[in-house]
Amino acid sequence: MPFVDELDFDLAWERVIKDMGDDPYPDLLHYKDVQSNWDAFRDELLESLKGDAGKYRPEAYSAIEIPKKGFTLRPAGAMHIKDRLLYQAIIDFLAPYYAPEEPVFSYRLAGKRSSWMFKPGVEQWKSFQTKVEELCHQYKWVVETDLTAYFEHIDHKYLARRIDDIFPDIARPTMRVLKQYLMKLLSGWSNGKPYGIPQVNNPSSFLGNIYLDEFDKWMVRNNYVYLRYVDDMRVFANTEAEARRKLAEMISSLRRLGLYVSSAKTRIVKSEQVLGELDDHKDTLNAIDAAFKTKRRSAIEAIIPILNDFFFSTISDENGFRDRHFRFCIYRYRKLKAFGLGGDIHQPIVETVLSKLPELPNATDIFALYLSLFPGVPDISSVILEFLNSDYNTYAWQAAHLLEVLIRTVNPDDRQTANKCTELARNIRQSQNAHPAARAKATILLGKLGDWADRRSIRDSYYGESNLEVRRAILVAVQEMNTDERKFFYKNVQNGNSDIARAVSYLKQLNVPKYHYFNPPDPEDFADEDYLHLEEDIDYYDIWY
To answer: For the residues of 199-251, what is the DSSP string, one character each?
Structure first.
């Protein structure tokens, strides 16, 4: 049986859809074009993979830099859907054969057939923190460290050797083909470099655990009192000297894997200090979380003043600002707004979020989810437009998210705002330096809010456009073009490229133009006046604090 016939692409598809909420910038059509004809797409993919694995070439990888706290950057990107499905299916094939060491709390398999690949990150992080607290009561000193650019330093050859070592029960011919496909994917995504794997996706998270497995085993074998969550590590000791020695040994062991600890995030501290930091705001966070989990309107409304106080104290604490606390609050405000709770409290929150765009570019993804709940509010679009036209507009990832907010919220009938948006969109499209992610969003924004001349200009630009994502955006942007012109254009471009043909086929099925795929929970979802149905399978699945 060919190796690809052993892969479960139906399961891979379910998991890719679940994982999409964490994408650096989600697919323009949210893979609806694939979903609309999944069986045919899967069969075509399977057939294409039955050749020589050594000759496999992944499609172009759309790289983008994501700002981190402190204005540093981490690389990310978007894979072609065929490559992404193959990557997911390969990891799904391996995953049931492996469980991390007991001290590892991150990315533990949810179940062989679960559409969620891993157990909820929220619960795993809380378990990690609980274990840290428990061990702090048993040991006097704690080593805290994490790794510098962890995923960027993963060596492909070493990873391949670890896969051989960890999965001896898989037949060697099967493993040989599996590794050929996997290494072709990783090499293509790293521009031919022998190290580095994509971030912000479940298969890479699994491989991250595989890469550190030998180190985890070394720590356990040498009787380290050790915990790990992704690349965040804790080691416990009874004396400061012992803690220093263990840190030095860890650094040497990690260096043999080509990994390095972050000096800025490494410290040796007394356990009582760690306990004090763990207790900081713990009761407040738990009280807010407990109120939301009741799903009762009365309990949730009663906790709002505490949530507000915590939000504004977090914002004003410049020295001790914690990004997780900030995101915790914004996700709760998003829940309140989505389900019609909170009333007038949202105005100061929106104003604060908008004021933080220059200061917290790394939080723009959650900002966008919250701001998208306020369609047709001129003050929001005005501030976003001002920001996008300013010198603070530095990061393509941030710009793409904010352009998406404009696509979702600006009403074409508000011509004053629409005209400002179309002017911005034209400028971005004409810029030689604009990232494809920003150009794609600007194209859709112009198509939605512009006039017939804009849509013709967008159509004409298709033939000189080399980037696939921008070309797909052009197909979306011309949905309101003159019917005959649009039909002729779609017919003219759909031959010769399966991605374009698939997008055209899907768009032609739509009864009304569709420019975005943001679907907030319905505020009418009440079982009775005091019971609130909070959906579990939306973007805040992995957020606690």
So the answer is: -SSHHHHHHHHHHHHHHHHHHHHTT-EEEEETTEEEEEESSHHHHHHHHHHHH
Q: Residue 328: which pLDDT band, with cuts at 50, 70 and 90? A: confident
Pairing of strands 141-146, 73-78: unpaired
| pLDDT of 527 | 31
Whether 326 and 543 have beta carbons less than 8 Å apart is answered as no
Tell me the pLDDT tens digit for each residue of 71-112. 999 999 899 999 999 999 999 999 999 999 999 999 998 877
* Domain contains 543: no
Q: Are strands 232-237 and 225-229 parallel, antiparallel or unpaired?
A: antiparallel
Q: Please say if the pLDDT value at position 288 is more than 60.
A: yes
* Distance between CA atoms of residues 331 and 325, nearest Å: 10
Listed residue (149, 280, 157) closest to 211, CA to CA: 157
Instruction: Give how far the C-alpha of residue 283 lies from the chain's centroid of Cα atoms, to the nearest Å.
Output: 28
Could you report the per-residue pLDDT of 342-388, keeping only the tens digit for each?
A: 888 999 999 999 999 999 999 999 899 899 999 999 999 999 999 99
Alpha-helix residue ranges (DSSP H) falling in 98-155: 121-136
- Residue 297 inside a domain? The answer is no
Which 3-state string (H, E, C) describes 267-333? EEEEHHHHHHHHHCCHHHHHHHHHHHHHCEHHHHHHHHHHHHHHHHHHHHCCCCCCHHHHHHHHHHH
Radius of gyration of the chain, Cα coordinates, nearest whole angstrom: 25
Report how far residue 205's alpha carbon sits from residue 187's, in angstroms, rounded to the nearest whole number: 17
Is residue 418 assigned to a domain?
Answer: yes
Q: What is the DSSP letter of 377?
A: -
Q: Take residue 492 and report the two structure tokens written for it.
A: 């003219």
Residue 269 phi, psi dihedral angles, 5° rounding:
-135, 160
Burial status of residue 518 (CB atoms within 10 A of its CB: 0-12, 13-18, 19 or more):
middle
CA nearest to 58, candidates 41, 24, 81: 81
The amino acid occupying position 332 is R
Give yes or no: residues 194 and 70 share one domain.
yes
Domain CATH for 399: 1.25.40
Percentages of the chain per state (helix, strand, coil), in multiples of 5: 60, 10, 30
Query: For residue 76, what are the β-bridge partners?
Result: 64
State which residues form the domain around 16.
3-274
pTM for the structure as a whole: 0.91
For the chain, the domain total comes to 2
262 with 395, same domain: the answer is no
**Mapped to the 3 state alphabet, what secondary structure does 292-304 carry?**
HHHCEHHHHHHHH
Asked, for residue 336, whether it belongs to a domain, the answer is no
Residue that is last in its domain, among 274, 302, 331: 274
Last residue of a domain, one of 228, 246, 274: 274
